[in-house]
């Protein structure tokens, strides 16, 4: 049985980032990942394999509150869900940290303000080589300078749509993206959103954080190692061992420090499986406050429009982020989807011939409508024996419907007379977060503001489960920034480096 200084459970955005930040300390670090490295294979760029056949979806079922099984669509590989993400690396708005009132409820304040996290956002943007342009987004929070790389360029058709939207009064801005577009396109003329990346241009957790961490001799990675539970020592406070399953064999490792980074659902499951009451659960809040953005695809159709773009996903709109545009409560974020094609549409429209869907897709512009899911203790992850039960309660749908209405009106004004929408369901992991949240009070939150478990001083959590609110932007950069902040705290308090 090995006894490293630190065990990091999971190699997604949180685990890989914190491993990267702790690697130079010289501490003996072991990373246990449920997955393995994603191979470079033809299916990575095959829309039919990805969207119609579900080639990469894990062969597992979770259950809803009524006991109905569903395939969750979370990915187990080095880099986690970031291998498939749209590479959008947006900061939360400053207002998101201070509490936001919505028509249907309130998003609470964080235990610190935006300014506390701003330097770590800077660091995360550098680590993930974010492409963007400061100053275009009217809701942008304060930042120390511009991005190190210019934004990914609009394709001709997308530049046309951006200009159309400007003319109807909107302020589209270049999405901050983690994508080396030339490298990506050299491996295939496809979008990157939802297409897995085998180190071919996407700035994901494996490419930017994990692989550089593994260059250090003091960092080791064990793949196909599924952590099942944490084991307490005799004092009932310190984590003594991590138990995991690998190659059909149950193994244990006894670290000095544990960093749990298995994702919002899996991290909560590991804590709940580790004792009858759940570890780090004095507050009773482990697994609760599950959030999952309300997302809809919105497709604008103009018979005169010819969308010949390859990747499309280069701008967003925050005109309705801080208010509804008329002085009312906030609605959310709008951003381009990755380019929609016939094979992608056929995954939902199975009876329609693909050549017809391709003809329709050439006349569309495709957006993602994103609104905040509010934290609710009744929205939760729990265990029923070994079954993972996800009792997600949608919230804030008034804002979601309001954003769809506002954007539909603008698209029609911009010359897209037909506008269709499709609400994503629980089978699409839409930025899951919030199940082991940070807080200033151990009676209401499992973790202190630095991600340390109040009940277990040698246990930290660094992934999307720690998020207090979901805001209405992609969470990846915030997860990375929080992980960098937690890493600094570990170096200062545990490693004295």
TrEMBL record:
Q: Which SUPFAM superfamilies match?
A: FAD/NAD(P)-binding domain
> Span of the secretion signal?
none
Q: Tell me the keywords, alphabetical order.
A: FAD, Flavoprotein, Oxidoreductase
Pfam families xref list: GMC_oxred_C, GMC_oxred_N, NAD_binding_8
Cofactor needs: FAD
Does this entry carry the keyword Methyltransferase? no
Stretches assigned to the Glucose-methanol-choline oxidoreductase N-terminal domain:
200-293
Q: Where does the record place the Glucose-methanol-choline oxidoreductase C-terminal domain? A: 428-482
* InterPro entries for the chain: FAD/NAD-bd_sf, GMC_OxRdtase_N, GMC_OxRtase_C, P2Ox-like
Record-stated family: Belongs to the GMC oxidoreductase family.
Name of the protein in its database record: Dehydrogenase
Tell me the organism.
Labrys miyagiensis
């Amino acid at each position: 049985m090995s006894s490293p200084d630190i065990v990091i459970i999971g190699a997604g955005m949180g685990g890989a980032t914190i491993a990267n930040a702790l690697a130079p300390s010289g501490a003996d670090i072991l990373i246990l990942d449920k997955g393995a490295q994603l191979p470079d294979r033809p299916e990575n760029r095959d829309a039919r394999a990805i969207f119609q056949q579900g080639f990469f979806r894990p062969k597992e079922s979770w259950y809803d509150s009524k006991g109905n099984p569903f395939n969750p669509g979370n990915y187990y590989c080095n880099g986690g869900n970031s291998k498939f993400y749209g590479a959008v690396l947006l900061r939360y708005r400053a207002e998101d940290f201070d509490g936001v009132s919505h028509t249907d409820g309130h998003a609470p304040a964080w235990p610190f303000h935006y300014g506390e996290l701003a330097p770590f956002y800077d660091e995360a943007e550098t680590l993930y080589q974010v492409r963007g342009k400061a100053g275009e987004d009217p809701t942008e929070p304060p930042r120390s300078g511009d991005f190190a790389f210019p934004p990914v360029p609009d394709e001709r058709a997308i530049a046309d749509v951006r200009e159309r939207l400007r003319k109807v009064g909107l302020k589209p801005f270049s999405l901050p993206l983690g994508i080396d577009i030339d490298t990506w396109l050299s491996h295939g003329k496809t979008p990157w959103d939802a297409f897995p990346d085998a180190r071919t241009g996407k700035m994901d957790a494996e490419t930017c954080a994990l692989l550089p961490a593994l260059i250090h001799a003091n960092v080791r990675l064990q793949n196909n190692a599924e952590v099942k539970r944490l084991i307490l020592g005799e004092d009932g406070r310190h984590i003594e061992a991590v138990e995991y399953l690998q190659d059909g064999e149950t193994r244990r490792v006894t670290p000095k420090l544990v960093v749990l980074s298995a994702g919002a659902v899996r991290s909560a499951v590991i804590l709940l499986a580790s004792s009858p009451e759940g570890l780090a659960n004095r507050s009773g809040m482990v697994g609760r406050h599950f959030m999952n953005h309300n997302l809809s695809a919105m497709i604008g159709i103009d018979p005169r429009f010819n969308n010949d773009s390859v990747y499309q996903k280069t701008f967003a709109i925050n005109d309705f982020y801080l208010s509804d545009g008329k002085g009312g409560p906030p609605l959310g974020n709008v951003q381009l989807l990755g380019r929609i094609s016939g094979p992608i549409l056929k995954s939902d429209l199975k009876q329609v011939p693909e050549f017809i869907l391709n003809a329709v897709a050439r006349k569309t512009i495709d957006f993602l409508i994103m609104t905040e899911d509010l934290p609710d203790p009744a929205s939760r992850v729990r265990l029923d024996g070994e079954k993972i039960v996800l009792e997600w309660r949608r919230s804030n749908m008034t804002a979601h419907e309001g954003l769809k209405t506002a954007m539909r009106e603008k698209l029609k004004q911009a010359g897209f007379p037909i506008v269709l929408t499709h609400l994503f369901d629980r089978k699409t992991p839409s930025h899951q977060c919030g199940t082991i949240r940070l807080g200033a009070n151990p009676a209401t939150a499992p973790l202190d503001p630095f991600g340390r478990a109040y009940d277990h001083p040698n246990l930290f959590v660094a992934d999307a489960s720690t998020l207090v609110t979901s805001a209405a932007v992609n969470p990846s950069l915030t997860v990375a920034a929080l992980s960098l902040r937690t890493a600094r705290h570990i170096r200062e308090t545990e490693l004295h480096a």
